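Hey, resending since the last one bounced:
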Amino acid sequence: MKEVELAQWKLGAEATQDGLDCNAGKAAGCRIHTLVTDKAMKVVDATPEDKAALKKIVETVVIPGWVKRCGPRCGEIYNEVVAPITGLKFTAN
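The C-alpha cells again:
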C-alpha cells in the first residue's frame, strides 16, 4: 500500500503542475489538460503572508466546520492521522 500511496502523491503533484502549465499557456508542460491559448493566467507564488492567512483560515474555519459536520470522533482521528502530516491541529472552541 505504501507504493500505491507514493504513486498517488506523485500523480497528484504531476496533475497539479500540468494544470498550472496548461492554464498558464505553457505548451511544453501541458500534457493532460487543455492548453489555454487565449487569456492565459499568470502563476504567482504564495507569499509568506498568504501562507499565514491560509493556515489561520484552515485552522479556525475549515477544520472546525468539517468536524462540526462530521462529529467529534472525526476531530480525534484528524489529530491522530492528518495533523502530524500537515502541522495543523484541530482544537475545539
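The mean pLDDT is 95.

Sorry for the duplicate.
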